[in-house]
Design a protein that fits this description.
- The complex is a heterodimer of chains A (158) and B (388).
- With 158 residues, chain A is of the alpha/beta class.
- Chain A is built from 4 helices and 7 strands, in the order αββαββββαβα.
- Chain A is elongated, with a radius of gyration of 18 Å.
- Chain B is built from 16 helices and 8 strands.
- In chain B, the strands form 3 sheets. Chain B has a 3-stranded antiparallel sheet.
- In chain B, α3 packs antiparallel against α4 and α6 packs antiparallel against α7.
- Chain B is globular and about 70 Å long.
- In chain B, 50% of the residues are buried.
- The chains are: A alpha/beta (158), B alpha+beta (388).
- At the A-B interface, β3 and α3 of A face α2, α9, β6, β7 and β8 of B.
């Protein structure tokens, strides 16, 4: 499977293994085609999780990670891609319905936009909140004081 | 009938029997709000319902009321310091949360807990699964209108909490395990307490079943309510008893065994229709199967150390790991990224309740408002885990 895709995509795709777990580091341009391929051709029918990691010092600041599982193969794989701040990704809701809330959470926590998502809005934080808490430059004690004062009528939520 | 001075509300006082072409009742769609403070939402969940009369046309969940930023906290604590926080997500199955987290970090460190620790872990985790299912059964039955099972299940759950309390001093947020094994050796009489419980519970489960399984009201309220197919479950990422009740025989304890589940003999119960009743049956059988696992584990506890050799300061090498376990509610996963320091660079929790809750919408469409309550109950969500 790995060899086949390596020939097909060349340098855009790098298969890696760490502690016995396989993942693909792929170029942003291969999303969502590669994800669709994994579902249709390789039977990765269950999208376990979508998440992101923020590396503020890198040029492409975000790693977006899809964790996939295949029921027929009983196998897990991760797909990882790097994007810059402000860049968006194509949504994978059309591939796995579960991506809906998972992408909303990534948007809420990191501010990464997913094009073609049916209803991309905040999920855990209230609408109108400023900032994306899981970015590394968002301090642990930081919060949207303005939102707290207007909506809760208290000086500070701390 | 046409008395204009009537003090009845409009819908009634405007009734005009002489002109039947006028609609008898207003048939507009109605949007109503359920929660966030509602006893049947098991926490603070708000559901916006679009209704046509009593029929549900669509729902939208508003969540986040219990958001505490657990993943952000993790980045600002050491691996060891974060351990107790995971208990506060799914607080009715704290032991499972702790097991998942400890094993994920152990994987990242490339160490393995010693056999004795694994046996203790399996016993406590399975006891916790039973406790979680008991709490679910009591509250779910209460939501549907049966009050008695609540008292029965809480009475029996108490015995499990007593074992936890004797073992580690806490009843709910147990913090029972440490990275590398267990901190506490079993107390004197632990095995006796567990064995007593093994004899105590089966007749009690029979009691639950006597109250509910053949009960006509229970059947009316659960059969063909909140049906979801196995295919939809997979597309929506729904796991745990909900997936199994839809006929998919999948349990991480069997598919990708962790701890020492591979050593034990047990069955994975499945349902056929994927309705609320099947999910009830699956969980009842799971309780019995958990007892089977505990029985094998408690009779086979080996002697030996309970902690692996783990450095005092936990500093995994740069890298990332995903580890998941079968929590009582479904697949609970931890995705941990290490940058080589003493604090995790990123901890992502893949909560089963959050992902399962997404299926609420397709499960209640076309059903009655009262069934929404039944379906929220049958999904077995814990809002502490949904919102983290």
């Amino acid at each position: 499977m790995v060899e086949k895709y390596r020939r097909q995509y060349g340098s855009g795709l790098e298969p890696l293994t760490y502690l016995g777990q396989n993942y693909f580091s792929v170029d942003r341009s291969l999303i969502p085609d590669f994800l669709r391929l994994l579902r249709d051709e390789e039977q990765f029918d269950y999208c376990v999780d979508i998440t992101a990691v923020h590396y503020p010092k890198r040029e492409k600041q975000f790693d977006v990670v899809w964790i996939l599982y295949s029921f027929p193969r009983n196998e897990r794989v991760r797909v990882k891609t790097q994007i810059a701040d402000g860049e968006s990704l194509p949504s994978s809701v059309g591939i796995w319905a579960t991506a809906n809330w998972l992408e909303r959470e990534v948007f809420d926590m990191f501010g990464i936009k997913f094009d073609g998502h049916p209803d991309l809005k905040r999920i855990l934080l209230p609408d109108g909140w400023k900032g994306h808490p899981l970015r590394k430059d968002y301090g642990i004690l930081q919060q949207d004081q303005e939102w707290v004062q207007i909506n809760l009528g208290i000086e500070s939520g701390q | 009938m046409n008395d204009k001075t009537s003090s009845l509300p409009n819908a009634v006082s405007n009734l005009d029997l002489e002109t039947p072409e006028k609609p008898y009742l207003d048939s507009n769609e109605l949007i109503i709000n359920m929660g966030p403070q509602h006893p049947a939402t098991h926490g603070v969940l708000r559901v916006i319902l679009k209704l046509d009369g009593e029929k549900v046309l669509g729902t939208e969940c508003v969540i986040g009321y219990l958001h505490r930023g657990v993943e952000k906290i993790a980045e600002n604590r050491t691996y060891t310091m974060f351990n107790p926080y995971v208990d506060r997500m799914d607080y009715v199955a704290a032991v499972s949360n702790g097991l998942g987290y400890c094993q994920a970090v152990e994987k990242l460190l490339n160490v393995e807990a010693p056999p004795r620790a694994n046996y203790i872990r399996v016993i406590l985790t399975e006891l916790n699964r039973i406790a979680s299912h008991q709490l679910w059964l009591g509250t779910h039955a209460l939501d549907i209108g049966a009050m008695t099972p609540l008292f029965y299940t809480f009475r029996d759950r108490e015995e499990i909490l007593k074992i936890f309390e004797k073992y580690c001093g806490a009843r709910l947020t147990t913090h029972a395990f440490r990275i590398g094994g267990c901190q506490y050796e079993t107390y004197a009489g632990f095995e006796k307490d567990v064995k007593n419980y093994l004899a105590f519970l089966p007749p009690k489960i029979d009691e639950y079943e006597a109250l509910l399984t053949g009960n006509r009201i229970w059947l009316e309220r659960t059969k063909n309510v909140g049906v979801i197919s196995g295919k939809d479950c997979i597309a929506l990422g729904v796991t745990g008893p909900v997936l199994r009740a839809a006929g998919v025989k999948w349990d991480i304890r069997k598919a990708q065994p962790y701890a020492n589940y591979a050593d034990f003999d047990f069955e994975i119960p499945t349902g056929e229709n994927g309705d609320t009743f099947d999910r009830y049956m699956v969980r009842i059988i799971e309780m019995r199967q958990s007892l089977r696992i505990i029985e094998q584990a408690v009779n086979g506890i080996p002697e030996g150390p309970i902690m692996a050799k783990v450095p005092k300061v936990i500093k995994p090498a740069v890298g990332e790991i995903y580890h998941s376990i079968e929590a009582p509610k479904g697949e609970l996963g931890y995705f941990i990224v290490s940058d080589g320091s003493t604090q995790p660079y990123r901890v992502r929790v893949r909560p089963p309740s959050f992902v399962n809750l997404q299926a609420l919408d397709i499960m209640v469409r076309g059903q009655l408002v009262a069934d929404v309550i039944a379906v929220i109950g049958t999904l077995d969500i814990v809002l502490g885990e949904v919102d983290r």
